[in-house]
Amino acid sequence: MRLVAIAILQYQDKFLMQLRDDIPTIVHPGVWTMFGGHLEAGENPDLGICRELQEEIGYIPKQISFFRSYLGDQVQRYVFYGVLDVGLDQLELNEGWDMDFLSAAEIAGGSHYSQRALQERPLAPSHQQIMLDFLSSSESRINML
């Protein structure tokens, strides 16, 4: 079983997502996902998500909270959420093909145009479902105020 920590990162009324590299041998190639990744052996998910965000975008939100855990056949996902107080220009894309802020409508629609890929790319279905769960949750309503 793989253990991963991923983050729902909100900026104003949009959400930061990563367009994964289009390499067939990686998980979710060429699709939009949340930032995060595998936990190291014995690593606490709270610390793992902070490490992953520092590695991938060079930024950790001032506060990051646990949302839910999702258990799949081969993966356990620990999902966190936080509010970004910086724009794309202050983030470093250290992993992935592109990053952008997606609206709730784009998340519901399941795709977003990438300026780097120069094409519309789908969201990974599992990540889209997690985002939809968040958008319908009380945590989302609190953050939208």
UniProtKB/TrEMBL annotation:
Domain Nudix hydrolase: 1-136
PROSITE patterns: NUDIX, NUDIX_BOX
Short name of one Pfam family: NUDIX
Keyword Plastid annotated: no
Domain of life: Bacteria
Keyword annotations of the record: Hydrolase
UniProt cross-references to InterPro entries, sorted A to Z: NUDIX_hydrolase-like_dom_sf (IPR015797), NUDIX_hydrolase_CS (IPR020084), NUDIX_hydrolase_dom (IPR000086)
Name the record gives this protein: NUDIX domain-containing protein
Source organism: Pseudanabaena yagii GIHE-NHR1
